[in-house]
Amino acid sequence: MKIRTGCSGWSYSSWVGPFYPKGSSSNDFLKLYSRVFHAVEIDSTFYRVPEKVTVIKWRDSTPDNFLFSPKFPGEITHKNGLNVDHNKIADFLYPIEFLGNKLGPVLVQLPAAATYSKNFCALRNFIKMLPESIRFAIEFRDNSWFREDVFMELEKNRIAMVWSDIPMAKVPTIITSDFIYLRLVGDRSIDSHDFGKLRIDRYESILKWAEELKSKENEIENSFIFANNHYQGFSPATVNIFRKAMGMEEVEWATLLKTSLPDNQKRLF
């Protein structure tokens, strides 16, 4: 199984010093990040649809084997409960597709208020409007979704059900596509001003997720693991804890950011 690890976002000023070299400009954050990790979840797309020129800049700032996983806009998933027409979806996917072969799975994060009884019909209609040329992963945040007809709907459309470590739902480790998408999310107990240092010990939870992933090694060829700052306080360090739990080499970002880009990427595989 090919395992890609990364963080939910890269634009954090609190990472300067603990992760990015001191004195780093925010304009260089993505380029620096991509020297260490080879995938990232784009959190900013949840709040606004990016301009095409911005997406092209992201694409051209990263090495060839780098992948982005954009998050669907909250206007679609939260404000409108997936009850949107095809044009709204196309308006988001049009600029995103300029990532080209650097486009990874697109994340559809549903709110905790979205439930099976209220939103399953809307979800099915939403799925019908998604292009088959793009991989999608859907995150449910309510336990009512975890039932056979939902799993079958996702599997029929080759959409991954996200494995999430979240407080509001107990997510089963069901496989519904040819890849696994794991999110170490946590809660909101850590303030954004405190990012940059591990604040919570979640080692036992990380170990359990690693064991679950190991148990699927013969079933899946690709997996994506993204850590959020809210999970422990410092997602790059969380990624390293997960990698160690998987028996993978830890990422030494202080060293990688001093070396050439091709060498950095080679060391990640």
Question: What's the structural blueprint in terms of helices and strands?
Answer:
Blueprint (H helix, E strand, L loop, with lengths): L1 E7 L20 H5 L5 E4 L9 H9 L6 E4 L3 H6 L6 H11 L9 E4 L6 H13 L7 E4 L8 H9 L3 E2 L1 E3 L13 E6 L18 H13 L6 E6 L1 H4 L2 H11 L7 H4 L4 H7 L2
Parallel strand pairs: 1-2, 1-9, 2-3, 4-5, 5-6, 7-8, 8-9
Protein name: DUF72 domain-containing protein
Pfam family, one: DUF72
Organism: Oxyplasma meridianum
Summarize the model shown.
By secondary structure, the chain is of the alpha/beta class. The chain is built from eleven helices and nine strands.
Written overview of the protein:
InterPro entries: DUF72 (IPR002763), UPF0759_sf (IPR036520). This is DUF72 domain-containing protein. Pfam families: DUF72. The protein is an alpha/beta fold and 269 residues long. It has one domain: Protein of unknown function UPF0759 (TIM Barrel). The protein has helices spanning 29-33, 52-60, 74-79, 86-96, 116-128, 148-156, 203-215, 229-232, 235-245, 253-256, 261-267; strands at 2-8, 39-42, 67-70, 106-109, 136-139, 160-161, 163-165, 179-184, 222-227. The strands form two sheets. It has a six-stranded parallel β-sheet. Strands 4-5-6 form a three-stranded parallel β-sheet. Helix 7 links the parallel strand 8 (179-184) and strand 9. Helix 7 crosses helix 9 (235-245). It is globular. The termini are close together.
